[in-house]
Task: inverse folding
């Protein structure tokens, strides 16, 4: 997440009206929605420029599961990226949703 956050200044055409959104897609079969939910439960990612972030899993049983990550804005200019933690345990639940399979 830190690497994506640090790329913000290099993006073309920004700032964007909807913000800077990061989607991390994985196609690993062993990463079930339940495993991801448990692994991410209670974590907050500290960022400076990312507005929203998601983990998107591959197609499963008629849906595309995804999780919205919990983000907290770090103080711009006061915490160099190398010195700030990428994630901290907060105890907050992880948001889990599914995109339905589109009709073709």
Result:
């Amino acid at each position: 997440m830190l690497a994506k956050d640090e790329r913000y200044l290099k993006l073309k055409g920004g700032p964007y009206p909807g913000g800077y959104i990061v989607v991390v897609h994985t196609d690993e079969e062993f990463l079930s929605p339940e495993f991801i939910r448990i692994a991410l439960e209670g974590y907050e990612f500290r960022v400076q420029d990312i507005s929203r972030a998601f983990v998107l899993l591959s197609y499963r049983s008629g849906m595309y599961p995804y999780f919205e990550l919990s983000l907290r804005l770090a103080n711009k200019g006061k915490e160099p990226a190398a010195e700030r933690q990428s994630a901290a345990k907060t105890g907050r639940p992880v948001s889990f949703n599914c995109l339905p399979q589109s009709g073709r």
Remarks:
- The first strand starts at residue 20 and ends at 26.
- Residues 24 and 55 are 5 Å apart (CA to CA).
- The radius of gyration is 15 Å.
